[in-house]
């Protein structure tokens, strides 16, 4: 049997990893500033993470949500504290798409409404509702097409206000990334996020903060939407939550009422996934990783702005987009093949940095030196 060929693959076989370093099968060493799409949050193979997961596996790896799983409560407590949302509720699932799917469903159950507002260049995942709210027709199957999702221009206050005037009483939810990831590292403006909050309050709609990529401490705040000083009704999360162990979740404001069967999953919230997520939060707290993300991220952003060739540097903390002119489309590939540094990309020509939250200033300097070399080449 062959694999279903849906991924353009870089021909590198990573066989070992530690912190922000990975090695291929020939023993070549690479600096990982991408973490496999923003997933590696506390560094590869962190000793506390390995210990916590190993211990859990020796006790029990999985049982379904039909029995008590106390480690879920422990995770909820730690997550409530670190995110400053102690009065919110936690629903656990397995991925970012599933988190958004449940967030959108919950908004619709809660309001009894059908319409979702999403924005240009948004990416919310590949399950049916999440993909319908994703601004990429190429990945929306005919069966996922729906008139219930309305796309509006990102950061356009006037258009959003008018849309609510026109059909606000039909809007179940507004879903927005605090910083668009796949869309090219574009920040939602503070006034725009504040406007979403006030319109959702005025019209009884649900504000969903997609924090799958931009959340979990990456920007220096727990949720990237926090910098706008607004509270969303539901936060979706995944990626950095398990440092590679599949886990996702939604943090749900107290006004939502749970009832048996409203949401559900077989695997979500299993013992092993929760052990991974608890280990991540332990390390984030012990090693003050949000502060590090803020500090090393600001340093990188300031230094990157000094390169004349760079058209724009966008982002916050360790979620950084470097926009280059089209003729420099080779830089990302050269960084990997010539300097052995993994980075990400966004179309048309943005290099995305999404490293572990504990990268050092020395790692940042290694990248800056290599980047300067590549720009000159
Ligand atoms: C903002 C955002 N939301 C949702 C998702 C979907 O997450 P997953 O791939 O875990 O389903 C992604 C994945 O890239 C994302 O960046």
TrEMBL record:
Needed cofactors: pyridoxal 5'-phosphate
Family the entry assigns: Belongs to the class-III pyridoxal-phosphate-dependent aminotransferase family.
Family matches, as InterPro entries: Aminotrans_3, Class-III_PLP-dep_AT, PyrdxlP-dep_Trfase, PyrdxlP-dep_Trfase_major, PyrdxlP-dep_Trfase_small
Coiled-coil ranges from the UniProt annotation: none
High-level lineage: Bacteria, Pseudomonadati, Bacteroidota, Sphingobacteriia, Sphingobacteriales
Listed Gene3D superfamilies: Aspartate Aminotransferase, domain 1, Type I PLP-dependent aspartate aminotransferase-like (Major domain)
Protein's name according to its UniProt entry: Acetylornithine aminotransferase
Pfam families membership: Aminotran_3
């Amino acid at each position: 049997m062959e694999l279903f060929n849906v991924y353009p693959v870089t021909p590198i076989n990573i066989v070992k990893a530690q912190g922000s370093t990975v090695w291929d099968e020939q023993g070549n060493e690479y600096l990982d500033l991408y973490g496999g799409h923003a997933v590696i949050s506390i560094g590869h193979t962190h000793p506390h993470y390995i210990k916590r997961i190993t211990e859990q596996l020796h006790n029990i790896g999985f049982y379904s949500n039909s029995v008590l799983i106390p480690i879920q409560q422990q995770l909820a407590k730690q997550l409530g504290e670190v995110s400053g949302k102690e009065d919110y509720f936690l629903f656990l699932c397995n991925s970012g798409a599933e988190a958004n799917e449940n967030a959108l469903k919950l908004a619709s159950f809660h309001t009894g409404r059908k319409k979702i507002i999403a924005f240009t260049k948004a990416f919310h995942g590949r399950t049916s509702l999440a993909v319908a709210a994703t601004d990429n027709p190429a990945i929306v199957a005919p069966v996922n097409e729906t008139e219930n999702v309305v796309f509006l221009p990102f950061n356009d206050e006037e258009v959003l206000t008018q849309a609510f005037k026109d059909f606000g009483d039909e809007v179940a939810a507004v879903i927005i990334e605090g910083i668009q990831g796949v869309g090219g590292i574009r920040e939602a403006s503070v006034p725009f996020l504040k406007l979403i909050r006030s319109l959702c309050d005025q019209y009884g709609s649900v504000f969903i903060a997609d924090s799958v990529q931009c959340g979990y401490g990456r920007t220096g705040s727990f949720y990237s939407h926090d910098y706008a000083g607004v509270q969303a009704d539901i936060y979706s999360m995944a990626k950095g939550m398990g440092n590679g162990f599949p886990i996702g979740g939604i943090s749900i404001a107290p006004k939502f009422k749970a009832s048996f069967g409203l949401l559900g999953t077989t695997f979500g919230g299993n013992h092993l996934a929760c052990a991974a997520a608890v280990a991540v939060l332990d390390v984030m707290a012990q090693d003050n990783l949000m502060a590090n993300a803020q500090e090393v991220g600001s340093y990188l952003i300031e230094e990157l702005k000094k390169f004349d060739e760079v058209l724009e540097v966008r982002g916050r903390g360790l979620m950084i987009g470097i926009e280059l002119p089209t003729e420099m489309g080779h830089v990302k590939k050269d960084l990997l093949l010539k300097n052995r540094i993994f980075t990400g990309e966004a179309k048309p020509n943005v290099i995305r940095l999404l490293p572990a939250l504990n990268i050092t200033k020395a790692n940042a300097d290694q990248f800056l030196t290599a980047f300067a070399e590549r720009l000159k080449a």
